[in-house]
């Protein structure tokens, strides 16, 4: 299994993967310690509540999202960000179509194509 991306990547080289109803994920770059993803949501799409052992930081590029982390809810929009500690239950509901940039440490091997 490949454990790092190329040094330089262009958008057309990076395949998008349809995840769950209305979510599309694109792997941007990664190595064993870090991963960067773009996730596009359609209005009403749900990033279902889940947890994992990775640390996660997410930046809201566009759209409006209701984000729940450890039972606490907040509405976030373009320019906002959130952090999720390892093993904390979290998820998001897309209120207005948008894009998130997710980072994970270490990388999410389960996301590799």
Mind sketching the topology for me?
Blueprint: E1 16-18, E2 23-31, E3 34-41, E4 46-50, E5 55-69, E6 72-77, E7 81-84, E8 90-105
Antiparallel strand pairs: 1-2, 2-3, 3-8, 4-8, 5-6, 5-7, 5-8
Name its key features.
single chain, mainly beta, Jelly Rolls, eight-stranded antiparallel beta sheet, 0% helix
Task: Describe the structure in your own words.
- The protein contains no helices and eight strands.
- Strands 1, 2, 3, 4, 5, 6, 7 and 8 form an eight-stranded antiparallel sheet that branches.
- A hairpin with a 2-residue loop joins β5 and β6 (72-77).
- The radius of gyration is 14 Å and the shape is globular.
- The chain starts with 15 loop residues before the first strand and ends in an 8-residue tail after the last strand.
- It has 113 residues and is an all-beta fold.
- It has strands at residues 16-18, 23-31, 34-41, 46-50, 55-69, 72-77, 81-84, 90-105.
- The chain has one domain (16-108): Jelly Rolls (Sandwich), CATH 2.60.120.
């Amino acid at each position: 299994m490949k454990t790092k991306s190329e040094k330089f990547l262009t958008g057309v080289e990076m395949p998008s993967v349809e995840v769950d109803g209305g979510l599309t994920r694109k792997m941007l770059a990664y190595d064993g310690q870090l991963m960067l993803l773009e996730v596009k949501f359609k209005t009403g799409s749900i990033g279902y509540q889940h947890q994992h052992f990775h640390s996660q930081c997410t930046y809201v590029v566009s759209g409006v999202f209701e984000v729940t982390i450890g039972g606490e809810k907040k509405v976030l929009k373009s320019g906002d960000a959130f952090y999720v500690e390892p093993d904390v239950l979290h998820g998001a509901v897309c209120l207005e179509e948008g894009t998130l940039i997710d980072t994970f440490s270490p990388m999410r091997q389960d996301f590799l194509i």
